[in-house]
Design goal:
Rossmann fold, 6-stranded mixed β-sheet
Length: about 250
């Protein structure tokens, strides 16, 4: 595929904190309109890589092209065309849901209809409540609503179901994301859940110690794994055994 068709094209990304390498020469491409999963255990570098792709942090080495623009040169323009729902979304201690939506929406030139977002995410009963008093599930919905206020082309999600213990709320969230994908929006998400990644992502990039170990479609990975594989540790163990058999053959 021609690189101009990639909505994100990252090459040789390196990030080091002090003497500790966190991202080690990662290269990946994201296709327009797909849900792309960054998968790995805690401490693997997923959230750092997501922040580098969003432009929140700057890579020490490497190049990121997004929407046909250079992340370093065009960061301000790109800011208006991406949205992000962070795992630890930081909102003011005393701010209500409607105030938060209006505040973040005011930062952008392009804006999605706020009533549409509120209806889509079923936030009407909570508009006059303080964000900090809401359940984890509703706070995640508010965070997703904030990610959509500028009607972005790309939405970044950092472990979107983290802290959500209501299966119905999780299903509702993924139904909303599926509808937005149908509009043509691209999603890049992190997760530690192999089940979640296989069910909802079109393609998966697996990180271990800041290194990209595998990039594969969900369908291809399911064909490689035995039925009942549910965790990352089980997946890595199975693939390692097959790799060793291949090397000894």
């Amino acid at each position: 595929m021609n690189t101009q068709q990639y909505i994100i094209d990252a090459k040789g990304i390196v990030k080091t904190y002090g003497l500790i390498p966190v991202i080690r020469g990662v290269t990946l491409q994201v296709n327009r309109g797909e849900i792309f999963g960054l998968v790995g255990p805690s401490g693997s570098g997923k959230s750092t890589l997501l922040e580098l792709l969003m432009g929140i942090r700057q890579a020490d080495e490497g190049d990121i092209q997004m929407l046909g623009m250079d992340m370093k040169k065009d960061a301000r323009k790109l800011h208006h065309r991406i949205g992000f729902q962070l795992q630890a979304t930081v909102l003011f201690e005393r701010i209500k849901v409607m105030e938060a939506l209006q505040l973040f929406r005011s930062y952008y030139k392009k804006r999605r209809d706020l009533n549409e977002i509120i209806t889509m995410l079923k936030l009407k009963p909570f508009l006059n409540q303080y964000v900090r008093h809401l359940s984890e599930s509703i706070q995640q919905r508010v965070a997703l609503a904030i990610a959509l206020v500028n009607d972005p082309d790309i939405v970044f999600l950092d472990e979107p179901s983290a802290g959500m213990d209501d299966p119905r709320a999780i299903d509702d969230m993924w139904s909303i994301i599926a509808k937005l994908q149908d509009e043509g929006k691209t999603f890049v998400m992190t997760t530690q859940s192999l089940d979640e990644a296989l069910e909802h992502c079109d393609r998966l990039a697996f990180l271990m110690n800041g290194t990209l170990s595998m990039c594969i479609t969900s369908q291809e990975l399911m064909h490689k794994l035995p039925a009942g594989t549910r965790t990352l540790n089980e997946m890595y163990a199975h693939l390692a055994v097959h790799r060793r058999k291949g090397e000894s053959a």
